[in-house]
Amino acid sequence: MIRFIKHTFDSIAGIEIYPIISLLIFFTLFVLVILYVFKIPKRRIDEMSNLPLDN
After folding, report:
1. Are 9 and 15 in contact (CB under 8 A)?
2. For residues 33 and 35, what is the distance between their CA atoms, to the nearest angstrom?
3. What's this model's pTM, rounded to 2 decimal places?
């Protein structure tokens, strides 16, 4: 089964760029989320942490 898939992918021209693009998209999204988390004010984090207890 793996040989069949590998043979199919080997026959497609230019397919080696897709893993690189996927990695770049993932890395960019990961960095943006990390930056967003560090920029959230402490007060907002406290509000979100108390949400389950508000009822």
Report:
1. yes
2. 5
3. 0.63
pLDDT of residue 55: 66
The helix/strand/coil state of 15 is: coil
Q: Supply 13's token pair.
A: 């021209």
- Tens of pLDDT, residues 2-34: 777 777 777 888 888 988 999 999 999 999 999
Distance of alpha carbon 3 from its chain centroid, rounded? 29
Q: Give the side-chain half-sphere CA count within 13 A for 17.
A: 3
Amino acid at 33: V
> Domain residues of the chain, as ranges?
21-49
> Which residues 6+ apart lie within 8 Å of 15 measured at CB?
9
- DSSP 8-state symbol, 41: -
* Count of residues making up the chain: 55
